[in-house]
Structure to design on (228 residues):
């Protein structure tokens, strides 16, 4: 069974641009969560989707958005990029519940904003 | 506000020595508690989790963690560290009222000397 796949692995953008990151969960998993990882801040929860609906949201500005498709694949979008958005973005999937089921992580997309 | 604290940013131990990584949480009731490990260049992997029952939880790779309600702690332990345990370790919690939003601590980087 394939694991969680994130594409692309690396991205370089400039301030003001927008970016879309993709996540393909493990087959059969319906919950997809997104996290931002930066040195010193650890992992910060962005949002979680289940069956195409945003079920939970973290404390990030509206520039960060996401969606989930009927096949459970998910995308997150960051508009008007800022230097502080440089981070490793991690996606994770679980069967239905993040806490009650095991959550599996992808290797991440490293975004650099210049 | 709900929070997770990992007081130690960086820990160095010798191979074969015992290890304890600290985690404290601030929640109204017993939450779901997790420990994850992130090896360099890889995604996060679940080591163990706790919600109820025996307060001493066994995980993979020889790790265990003990839940202490009176201290709001969930410390991770290993009796004898191997060089391959060098990684970053994250404690995480989810409220029993919202089991689909995982909050992570800032992580503890473990360095192992031969």
């Amino acid at each position: 069974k394939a694991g969680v796949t994130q594409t692309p692995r690396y991205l370089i953008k400039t301030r003001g641009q927008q970016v879309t990151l993709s996540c393909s969960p493990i087959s059969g998993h319906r919950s997809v969560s997104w996290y931002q990882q930066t040195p010193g801040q650890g992992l910060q929860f962005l949002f979680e989707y289940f069956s195409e609906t945003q079920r939970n949201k973290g404390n990030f500005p509206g520039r960060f958005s996401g969606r989930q498709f009927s096949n459970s694949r998910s995308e997150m979008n960051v508009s008007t990029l800022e230097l502080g958005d440089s981070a490793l973005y991690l996606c994770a999937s679980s069967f239905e519940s993040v806490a009650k089921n095991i959550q599996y992580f992808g290797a991440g997309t490293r975004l650099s904003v210049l | 506000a709900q929070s997770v604290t990992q007081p130690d940013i960086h820990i160095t131990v010798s191979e074969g020595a015992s290890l304890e990584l600290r985690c404290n949480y601030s929640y109204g009731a017993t939450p779901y508690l997790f420990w994850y490990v992130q090896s360099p260049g890889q995604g996060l992997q679940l080591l163990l989790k706790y919600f109820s029952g025996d307060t001493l939880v066994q995980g993979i790779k020889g790790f265990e963690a003990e839940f202490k309600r009176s201290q709001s702690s969930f410390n991770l332990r290993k009796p004898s560290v191997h060089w391959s345990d060098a990684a970053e370790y994250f404690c995480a919690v989810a409220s029993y009222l919202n089991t689909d939003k995982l909050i992570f601590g800032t992580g503890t980087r473990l360095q192992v000397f031969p």
Q: What stands out?
A: The radius of gyration of chain B is 14 Å. The CA atoms of residues 90 and 107 of chain B lie 5 Å apart.
